From TrEMBL:
Natural source organism: Acidilobus saccharovorans (strain DSM 16705 / JCM 18335 / VKM B-2471 / 345-15)
Source species taxonomy: Archaea, Thermoproteota, Thermoprotei, Acidilobales, Acidilobaceae
Domain of life of the organism encoding this protein: Archaea
Name of protein: Chromatin protein Cren7
Disordered: annotated segments: 68-106
Length: 106
């Protein structure tokens, strides 16, 4: 006789005992696999501890992803790159940083 799947409904936010849906986990943490797969990617698992209003507690996997994969695998992304602000410093400014009083902006 096949075993009854305990709380493996696919939704980690649903209580496996009473079926109540919870909005947020009480606590989250990450698990990193110690051994990469054959492509060299490391699996990162986000776990969560949940508590339903009826007092039941459970732990479930919130998300699993490989370190080499992109977040939106099926969504085409633009290749445009935004230019950030360039800050240029002189080495003498950094070396004499603590010697001079700060300049007041006005």
């Amino acid at each position: 006789m096949p075993r009854k799947s305990k709380g493996k409904s696919g939704d980690p936010f649903t209580c496996p005992v009473c079926g109540v849906r919870v909005t947020d986990p009480e606590r989250t943490w990450t698990l990193v696999s110690p051994i990469p797969d054959r492509e060299g990617r490391v699996t990162i698992t986000v776990m969560g501890a949940f508590r339903c209003p009826n007092g039941h507690t459970w732990k479930a996997v919130i998300k699993k992803f490989k370190s080499g994969e992109e977040e939106g695998a099926g969504v085409p992304q633009t290749t445009e790159k935004e230019e950030g602000e360039t800050i240029t410093l002189d080495l003498s400014d950094i070396q004499n940083f603590n010697d001079e009083p700060p300049e007041e902006e006005g």
